[in-house]
Design brief:
18 strands
C-alpha cells in the first residue's frame, strides 16, 4: 500500500512537471522565444510525453536517483583528487569548425585564482568529441601547457566513449529545428549528463561553465561568500551569469539526479531550458542570481557549425568581486509599482528589478533593516541597458538612524544620484550610529518611469584580534 501511494505521488509530480512544460509553451515563456507553430509542436510533444509509459518508468527511477549512472570513462590527463574539494568546475568541449577557446578558458580559471583558492577546487574537462584523435591531441596540448595543475590535482581531463551514448539520429524535431541542430543539442545534453555524473562525488558544490568564457578575479571566494549568504535557506541553483548554462551552481548531491534528468529528456529541448525545468521541478520557482556576474562569454564562433555568437553578459565585472551583504530588510515604496516588478527585486538576489510609474517629488523607496547595521558602502543602479531612460533623474540617498513605532527617522543625507547612479564608500566615517534604514527620496517629478535595478549594501567588517 505504501509503495502504491508513493508511486501515485511521484506519478502526480511527473504529470505536474509535464503540465508545467505545456503551460510554459502555451503562455509563450520568454526563455523559449518560439513562434506559434513551434509552440503548437511543443504542446504536442509534451502531451505525447505525458502518456509515454516508458518515460513514466524512467521518471520513477530519476525521482529516486541517488547513485551515479554506470558510464565508462577514459582518463586523458590527471586523476580524481583523493580528498573531497569544496568546488568542482565542469566544462565540456568538442571540436569547433572555427575558433578554439578551451585553453584560454583554463588559463583564465587558474590565473584568476589564488593558490589558497586552488587548494579547494578541481577543474574537470570533458572532451566529448567522437573524434578520438582530436581528443588525444587536445589532451596532450593541455597537458603540456597546464602540467603543474594536472600534477597538483587541480585539473582532470576525461572522455566518455561513443558507445555510452543513446541514439543521436532520427530524433524528434521539436520546435521545428533542423535535424543537424537537434542532433547537436541532444548530444550536448548527454555530454553534460556524463560530465555531471562523473563529478558527483568530487566536491560539495559543482559549477557549470562553457569552454569559451573568462572569469572574474577571485571568483571562487565570491562563490563561497554567496553560498554562505544562503545558509539555512532552500535552493537548487545559484546563478553567477545570466547567459545560458554558464555559471550555474548546484549541490553535488543533486548531480546524479540532474544527470539522469538531462539523459531522460536529452532530445526534447536545449540544455539551458532543461536546467530551468529541473530547478522548477525541485520547487525553486524564482531565479537566484548574484551580481555582478563572475563569468563572461568570450567566444565569437559557436560550437555549432561555427556560426557567429556575440552574446555578452552586461553584468560581468572582471575585477575582484565582493558580493554585497544586503542584511535582511523590509522594502517599502510610495512609487506606483508596475505589474510584477515588485520592490523586493531591487534588493534581493531574485532575478529582475523594481519598475515603477512616473515618480513624483517626495516619493520614496525605503529599505528598512530587520536589525540595525553598520554600513560601509552603498551602490544603487537605476535604469537598464534596454531602458536607459528609465533612471531616477533627480533623487538623494539618506540613512535613518532612529526607529519609532516601525517608522524610520532622523535621516541624514549622504549624497545625490548622478545620472541615475549612486556609489558611496566610507559611510562608517560619515554615520557614527547604526543604520535603521536607507531611503531613496525623489526630489523632482519626472515623466519617465523608473527602474531600480539594484540596491547593494556592504556592512562594516569587525576587526578580529
Amino acid at each position: 500500500m505504501r509503495c502504491f501511494l508513493k508511486r501515485t505521488v511521484i506519478l502526480s509530480a511527473f504529470s505536474l512537471f509535464l503540465l508545467f512544460v505545456i503551460k510554459n509553451l502555451h503562455e509563450g515563456n520568454e526563455d523559449f522565444n518560439t513562434n506559434e507553430e513551434e509552440k503548437r509542436l511543443g504542446r504536442e510533444i509534451a502531451l505525447n510525453q505525458l502518456y509515454s509509459i516508458r518515460n513514466v518508468h524512467n521518471f520513477l527511477e530519476l525521482w529516486n536517483a541517488s547513485s551515479v549512472m554506470n558510464v565508462s570513462y577514459q582518463y586523458l590527463a590527471g586523476i580524481p583528487p583523493l580528498k573531497k574539494k569544496y568546488l568542482t568546475i565542469g566544462l565540456s568541449s568538442v571540436k569547433r569548425q572555427r575558433g578554439n577557446y578551451l585553453q584560454e578558458t583554463l588559463k583564465s580559471i587558474f590565473k584568476q585564482s589564488t593558490n589558497e583558492e586552488l587548494k579547494d577546487m578541481v577543474v574537470v574537462v570533458h572532451l566529448a568529441d567522437f573524434d578520438v584523435e582530436w581528443n588525444s591531441r587536445t589532451a596532450q596540448e593541455i597537458s603540456s601547457k597546464f602540467v603543474h595543475y594536472i600534477i597538483s590535482g587541480h585539473l582532470l581531463i576525461i572522455h566518455a566513449p561513443e558507445k555510452n551514448y543513446p541514439p543521436l539520429t532520427g530524433l524528434k524535431r521539436n520546435f521545428n529545428d533542423p535535424p543537424n541542430r537537434v542532433t547537436f543539442r541532444s548530444k550536448q545534453n548527454i555530454d553534460y549528463a556524463f560530465l555531471l555524473n562523473f563529478c558527483a562525488s568530487l566536491s560539495d558544490y559543482y559549477i557549470m561553465i562553457e569552454d569559451d568564457v573568462y572569469c572574474a578575479k577571485s571568483f571562487f571566494t565570491a562563490i563561497k561568500k554567496a553560498v554562505a549568504s544562503r545558509e539555512g535557506s532552500y535552493w537548487v541553483t545559484l546563478e553567477f551569469s545570466k547567459l545560458g548554462y554558464i555559471g550555474k551552481l548546484y549541490h553535488s548531491r543533486e548531480l546524479p539526479r540532474l544527470a539522469q534528468f538531462l539523459f531522460l529528456f536529452y532530445q526534447e529541448m536545449p540544455c539551458d531550458w532543461l536546467l530551468t525545468h529541473f530547478r522548477n521541478l525541485l520547487t525553486q520557482k524564482e531565479v537566484i542570481r548574484f551580481r555582478p556576474s563572475l563569468f563572461q562569454h568570450n567566444g565569437y564562433y559557436s560550437s555549432f557549425q561555427g556560426t557567429a555568437n556575440k552574446l555578452k553578459d552586461d553584468d560581468f565585472e572582471g575585477d575582484s568581486v565582493d558580493f554585497p551583504d544586503n542584511p535582511p530588510a523590509d522594502i517599502h515604496t510610495s512609487i506606483t509599482v508596475f505589474e510584477q516588478y515588485a520592490p523586493h527585486k531591487a534588493y534581493s538576489n531574485v532575478d529582475g528589478y523594481f519598475w515603477g510609474k512616473s515618480p513624483h517629488v517626495n516619493n520614496h523607496f525605503t529599505v528598512m533593516f530587520i536589525k540595525p547595521v553598520n554600513i560601509s558602502h552603498i551602490n544603487i543602479r537605476t535604469g537598464t541597458q534596454e531602458r536607459p531612460n528609465d533612471i531616477l533623474h533627480s533623487g538623494k540617498v539618506e540613512i535613518g538612524t532612529k526607529m519609532t513605532n516601525k517608522m524610520c527617522g532622523d535621516y541624514i543625507s549622504i549624497g545625490d544620484l548622478a545620472r541615475g547612479q549612486f556609489d558611496q564608500s566610507g559611510i562608517e566615517h560619515l554615520i557614527k550610529s547604526p543604520a535603521e534604514c536607507i531611503r531613496i527620496l525623489v526630489t523632482n517629478d519626472q515623466k519617465e518611469w523608473v527602474i531600480i535595478k539594484s540596491i547593494n549594501v556592504w556592512t562594516k567588517k569587525e576587526n578580529i584580534a
